[in-house]
Design a protein that fits this description.
Blueprint: H1 6-16, E1 23-24, H2 32-45, E2 47-51, H3 57-71, E3 74-79, E4 82-86
Parallel strand pairs: 1-2
Antiparallel strand pairs: 2-4, 3-4
C-alpha cells in the first residue's frame, strides 16, 4: 500500500468523481469472492468505487483498511457509504505517480476582428 501525497489524492478524487461503484459488499461482508472482484476491478480500472452497507462508519473504515492491506491498494476517499480505492496497473507499478489533471487555463478574451475601410 502506497501513501499518496495530498496532490495525488486530490487528482484521484477528481478522476473518481464521475465513477459509479463497481463492487457492492453485501450482507455477508468481505468474503474471498468479494476480494477477488475488487482485485479484478482494480487490475482493470486502477481507480474504483466500492459501496459498503451499514451505518457503522468505523466498520467501513476497517473494511477499507482490510481491502487495501489484502490487495496492496491505497485508500483515496471515504465518503458516506462509498470507498474510493486506487492501485496502479501492474505494468505501471514502477516509480510512477498517478496522472495529474491538466493545469487550468485562464480564460482568454474573445478575439476581435477589425474591419478596415478599403478606399
Amino acid at each position: 500500500m502506497k501513501d499518496l501525497t495530498p496532490a495525488e489524492r486530490r487528482a484521484l478524487r477528481a478522476r473518481a468523481h464521475h465513477l459509479h461503484p463497481v463492487v457492492i459488499i453485501g450482507g455477508a461482508g468481505l468474503t474471498p469472492a468479494v476480494l477477488k472482484e475488487i482485485d479484478a476491478a482494480l487490475t482493470s480500472h486502477e481507480l474504483i468505487k466500492v459501496r459498503v452497507p451499514g451505518e457503522d462508519r468505523r466498520r467501513r473504515e476497517r473494511l477499507a483498511g482490510e481491502i487495501c492491506a489484502a490487495l496492496d491498494a491505497s485508500p483515496v476517499q471515504h465518503i458516506g457509504r462509498v470507498l474510493v480505492l486506487y492501485r496502479p496497473r501492474p505494468e505501471e507499478a514502477g516509480p510512477t505517480t498517478p496522472p495529474q489533471p491538466p493545469p487550468r487555463r485562464a480564460k482568454q478574451p474573445p478575439k476581435r476582428s477589425f474591419q478596415h475601410d478599403s478606399d
